[in-house]
Design a protein that fits this description.
By secondary structure, this protein is of the alpha/beta class. The protein contains nine helices and 15 strands.
Length: 313
């Protein structure tokens, strides 16, 4: 535990200290570590114009302590490269092919600072067919029909992808297209009333450590499963997206008629990313620390990971 150090101050300094707003004094931290994370801003309600948010409008808490915000920078198209991997489940039904033109259109719509990679989930691994590139033709060409067979965990596949990620990227994001069902623990006949895949906690931890945002779109698998298993898979993907600062898209247990509105939502989110920098309180050793990021500006919501990796001092 870190405690504030109280030392006598010269009398000529005291009046200056007393003039500081209480809020500024509250945010002053001793023994902290600088960290950064990517935050998405969403407009909610009937607001017609996106409000302007400044660093003083951002509230970051670690437990009961309010942390000092040291930076809040819009991630413009010119300032920061983003690596975006599209990770497709090889166990997806062939009806997914009907969405490929929309996926390719999404790739072609992305700004130049976004490098796109394509990989497939196969037996708990990630098979990379295109590393992140700014060549839209190469990225779109790498999308192909699923193999129609995979017995692995989607969560372990995304972990494998993050471990293979090429060096050089400053920001990372994954779009997973899958039903989210863990097929490594007995298969569809013995899953029964299975709980959420425990691999989601592994994937969440790795993603938060590496600063990777994960988004998910539901696509049914080639093996027909019951609604209970499908909803478990959807819940697993929703949890993974929520806890890494991403979004999860699904509609009941059926395949989506079109990916277009969801890809548009994701595209809009990519245009409203901010790099948040703040001073976090480290633990006894390096590790994830729970944080909450909010704003006092009405009409907007902030999406971010619920933990950040903090190095021990």
């Amino acid at each position: 535990m870190f405690r504030n150090l109280i030392r006598p101050l010269p009398m000529f300094i005291l009046p200056t200290l007393w003039l500081l707003p209480l809020q500024a004094q509250e945010r002053t931290q001793i023994g902290t570590t600088p960290v950064q994370m990517t935050v998405s801003m969403r407009v909610v309600g009937d607001i017609q114009r996106t409000p302007v948010i400044n660093s003083e409008d951002i509230i970051v808490r670690q437990g009961e302590k309010r942390l000092q915000v040291t930076g809040w920078t819009p991630v413009s198209r010119e300032q920061s490269r983003l690596d975006l991997f599209i990770l497709i489940d090889d166990a997806a039904d062939l009806s997914l092919v009907s969405q490929f033109d929309e996926l390719r259109g999404f790739i072609n719509s992305l700004p130049a600072n976004i490098f796109v990679g394509v990989a497939y989930m196969r037996n708990g691994t990630a098979q990379i067919f295109q590393n992140p590139t700014d060549n839209r033709y190469d990225a779109a060409k790498a999308i192909h029909p699923p193999f129609l067979e995979s017995e692995g965990s989607p969560c372990l596949s995304v972990v494998d992808l993050m471990n293979q990620w090429p060096a050089g990227s400053t920001r990372r994001e994954v779009l997973m297209i899958t039903d989210g069902i863990d097929r490594t623990r007995g298969g569809p006949r013995t899953h029964g009333l299975s709980l959420m895949s425990p691999d989601v906690y592994v994937a969440r931890t790795v993603a938060q450590h590496m600063g990777t945002i994960i988004d998910t779109i539901f696509a049914r698998g080639v093996v027909i499963l019951g609604d209970w298993e499908i909803r478990n898979g959807q819940a697993t993907m929703a949890k993974l997206a929520h806890e890494t600062g991403g979004e999860s898209f699904y509609l009941d247990t059926k395949n989506l008629v079109s990916f277009h509105p969801y890809l548009d939502t994701l595209r809009s989110g990519l245009d409203n990313r901010y790099l948040l920098e703040f001073s976090a309180i480290p633990g006894g050793k390096s590790g994830l620390q729970d944080v909450e990021v909010t704003t006092n500006v009405g009409g907007v919501e902030l999406d971010s990971a619920d933990s950040v990796w903090v190095k021990a001092q």
